[in-house]
Amino acid sequence: MPHSVDTKVILTVLDTATIIEGPETVYRYDLTGVGIREGWAAAGVLDQIQSSVGPQWPEIDVTLDADNEVTTILQELLESKGVKVHPIRNESQVSPELESEDSPWVHVDDNEERTNLIEDEETPLETRRLNLRADVGQGAEKLIVVGLGVAAVVFAGISWWAFRHVLSSEPHTAPDASQVDVDQLPSQLETSAVRSAIPEVKEAEPVVLSRGGVQIRLPEGFSLQEESGALRAVGKDPELRIHLAHDPVHGVPAQEVEKEIRNKIERDPSLQLVAEESGRIKYREEPGDGSEVAWETWLSDGFQYSVGCHTRNKPTVIQQAACRMAFESFGPTS
Predict the structure, then answer these.
(1) Whether the Cβ atoms of residue 31 and residue 148 lie closer than 8 Å to each other
(2) What is the pTM of this model?
(3) What InterPro entries does the record point to (predicted)?
(4) Tell me: the pLDDT tens digits for 74-103?
């Protein structure tokens, strides 16, 4: 019977993120080196690795790239589960001898051939790490980004902490990719696989929340809160709030309600009409505190429904995705 080959995983831990490269590539910005050292993130790293390799767990071979303290913590944790761990040195920990002019270690770019390397029975650790990273990255079928950063949207005439029941929201414009500061990305991400792959966001199971005769479908982690009669949805992102309202029109014709909404937008300098489509009025509110609110409002079955996607700053792609789910799913309880 042929000997089974352990699944190879490269685990890179930075102060700002943890990167797991194996059958799939996962970036966990919520599991940081700081969190591992403080004791609250190590278990999450273990769970993510186990989730990524599936039935191969724990028959896997982990190459661990982290600082000494994090390496010690994760190595003990992984080996206690029967996982093979191979720690490697960070580039910042390479001995002065390897960095001297007389050293046979030669730094080369990813796209250049390595020359004048140490001739030994075994490839140098740093070279092996780069080779393993390329092998795993090129073979990965999915690139999963988890726990990305937050951004903002808010409604006009309203500060971030206050809520005013208004009209509607506008569609958000996705940030220009040219505005991404590549220099801020970890050097470990600069592989051919990352440069050529389009990230596929792995979505957790959404939740359906309901209260007071209405319901909404949002990402996992959201909940409904009610304060002074105002309903809003909040999740793990502290920079995003989704305001919700449904009011009976009491027989007022829909055309008259929509006309009044347009009049309010026209009179209020903090509001800007974005579009009217499919019976929905979309507008933006800028309260003046740097936040933004994207509103959508529409009439259905004797009620006016309003959703306001409120962020502290310009919305991120992740926030826009959550807002889109809110706009598309808010309505009466089924």
Answers:
(1) no
(2) 0.43
(3) T7SS_Rv3446c (IPR023840)
(4) 999 999 999 999 998 544 444 444 444 444
